Amino acid sequence: MCRWNAYFGQPILVSELLYRTQHGLVAQARQANEGIELLNGDGFGIGWYDDFGEAAVHPPGRYRSVQPAWNDVNLRELAAHLRSPLFLAHVRMTTGTPVQQTNCHPFRHEQWLFVQNGEIVGYPEIRRDLLLGVDRTLFGEIEGTTDSELMFFLALSFGLQDDPLGGLARAVGFIEATGRAAGIDDPVEMTVGMSDGDRLWAVRYGSGARSRTLYESNDADTIRSLYPDIERFQGLQDEDRIVVSEPLGDLPGLWREVPEGTAVVIQPGEDAHVPFAALSP
């Protein structure tokens, strides 16, 4: 059920995380080790920022396709030449909505990018009621039919741009209240990645504490110390961080699991880990 990763740090080629690791995102599209489904072949997308601090002037770029990620030659070409300090990538396994480009992640609004793995349980039954929660000034920007895009626009409607975690928490609270009114006990299972071009937020949450897997890379100093003979790791800078649905390789000490009900804030300087829970909107 979808795989995604996100990167924050010194500019690197997007191909580093998609292709040039033991178990990169494109490999995960064909064989997800920790996903519910093995294949994630219902489309893919990447979204990237050119320079920190420029997102408000230059919105992020985006490339999406309904092709399986492993079968798209254009993705391999683009990833081998695209260098970015902050990007998000996603491979999709549909939970029932059509395989079409507008349903592929990342979703974008102004300088914001959003990816999600999981589902709104009972989405077909409560979709209409959820759509009514979207601010009328944003409603016309919804292009697809996925629960993920709708979650993003609900978060925008509940204040994501001014209060990212609060806006998302209020959106989740609205979804839970709507679902439970329809007899759905645990409506939300999710990991979310989102960015405004300056910071990166990653959230793991489930209404019934059964959310999807999520990992963050260990700090650069620890990785350099663990593997002094690996040139690639010695080039890591202190700000370099990766968030993934599942590890990109099996070397010990590289990855830390993000706990249930936790938000990770990756930013210049010290990162933060804070509890995440649904809020009444």
Automatic annotation (TrEMBL):
Residues 2-269 form the Glutamine amidotransferase type-2 domain. The keyword Mitochondrion does not apply. It holds the Pfam family GATase_4. It comes from the Bacteria. Keywords: Glutamine amidotransferase. The keyword Ubl conjugation does not apply. PANTHER family: GLUTAMINE AMIDOTRANSFERASE DUG3-RELATED. This is Class II glutamine amidotransferase. InterPro entries: EgtC-like, Gamma-glu_amide_hydrolase, GATase_2_dom, Ntn_hydrolases_N.
